[in-house]
Every structure is written in structure tokens, then in C-alpha cells.
Amino acid sequence: MAQVSTNQLVGVNAQLSDGVRALQIQGHKSSRSDDTANPSGVLLCHTSCSLGSTPLELYLSNVSDFMNQNPTEVVTLIIANNDNIDVNDWASAFQKNGLDQIAYKPPSDTVTKDQWPTLQEMIDSKQRLVVFMDYKSDLSRVNYIIPEFKNVWENPYDQTSGTFNCTPDRYDGDTSQMMYLINHYRDNVDSIAGQEIKLPARDKLNVTNSVDSIMRDANSCAKQYNSYPTFVLVDFYNVGNGSVFAATSGMNNVAYEKKGVTPVPTSTSGAFRLDPTVYTAWMSVLTIGVSALLSALLM
Question: Of 2, 123, 256, 276, which is the most buried if we count CB atoms within 10 A?
């Protein structure tokens, strides 16, 4: 069942190594109160942790290792706080891994898209991790977990049509002054145990993750909002062998240097095979901070 519910096939180490620079995670409160390896009590999974999960501390330790080994890289982390977990619980895991020390600390809870520092300024100031959270952030208590919807708006998610729309769906403020994220992944409507659910449309990935599909979506949004999206959220980013990176390079008007990505693991039957270290915790991974955290910050 974990393979059915997952949205990525490889773990965060491979994602970052391949060039993904924006990650999305979804947190849920653990039922255990005595887990010394997970003192925050936050488990990462999609919807239900009964299908598999990873402790937040473990996930962030991998992000921390990458950041320490790559001192000129900027990474964005977008948190879906579905259980409305207290912001201090999240912060404890960041502190445990030292990520609070390199997280960007904005002057206020709302930063307009033209006020963001450049990537070089973030690198020079040693504040290279940008952390957004959809609900329950509070800068007066944790000064680096930034309210997402005051700074980034999103279009609708869980779309089932290949014709994506760019209508602002979640936001809190003037969208004309915000960066924005497009959910460029497609779901199929399915039924499990008599309950209707939406699952990743794996059968359409070669089309959905193609340069043509992503650019068609991004160009449509850019025409409406006079700039490309800041973030592009995709499922199974490595299906297409780098096509998602080629598309976001195009949005940034830079040449794409093809280096290949982590191969899609397959079973002997040719079907996708989930990396056994992934579980559903790694599932919602944003790609690619390139498109607007870069384009917006370099303006």
C-alpha cells in the first residue's frame, strides 16, 4: 500500500543530489510520547502514517548533511502541517539538527516578492534554508518558520485533468505581491475498500512530467501573472530523466546542463519499485526551487 500512496521513488538524499532545491513534507503527530529518536513527535507521511512514515528528525538530518556539505546551496522546505502541530514542536527538530542556525529569518511575516534577498545574499549571510509552513506558524515564537500563504499562493491541487489551471486557491493577502507555486501533478480517482480516493496518475507521468506539459502550464500562468511560478510541484520528479529540470531551466532563461538523474527503480515486471528506504515520508517533494525562488530572488 505504501507504494500506491507514495509520490516519489527515491529518498531526499537522491533528490537533493539530483538538483531538487525545494522540498515539501507533510507532518502528523505521533501517538508515541517516549520516542527518544523523535522527540518532536512529528512523523512525515501523506494523509495516513499507517502506510509508512519517517521521523522528522531523521529527514532533517539528511537535509542538514547536504547543507553542510554544500555551503553555497540554497534549499526551500515547505511544510504541510495537517495536524496543526505546535510550531515549537517543529522547531525542536530543526534545532536538533542545527538547521535553525542557517534558516532565513525574515524581517516580518510578509515579504513581498520584490523584497526577497538574492541567493548570493542568503549564502553570504549564512541563511540558506527557507522554511514555509501552511498553518500555525508564529514568527514571534519561531522566527524562521514563515507563514506560507502570506508569502506564496498556490493553485488548486489534486487536479485530475491534463489542462492545469492557475487560479489562486490558497493564500492570505495580495496575490499580486506574492511568489507562487503551481501544483503540476495529476491524480486519478480510484476506490479502496469502497472509499473514493485520489492517487498519483502514474500512467500519465511521461506526459505530465514532460518539458512541453510543464512549460505549457508555466507559460499560461506567466501570461496571467507576468512572471513564472516560484515553485513547481511534481510527482516522481525523476520520471522523464531530467525533463523537470530542463523545464525550470527554461523558465530561468539558463542553459540546462544535462547530467542525468537517479534512475527510476523498477521491478522485474517493469513496474515502478519503491526504494525501501523511502516509505511515504519522502513523498511530497517539491521541484524545483529553481523557477522562482531563483528567478524571484535574482530580480
Answer: 2
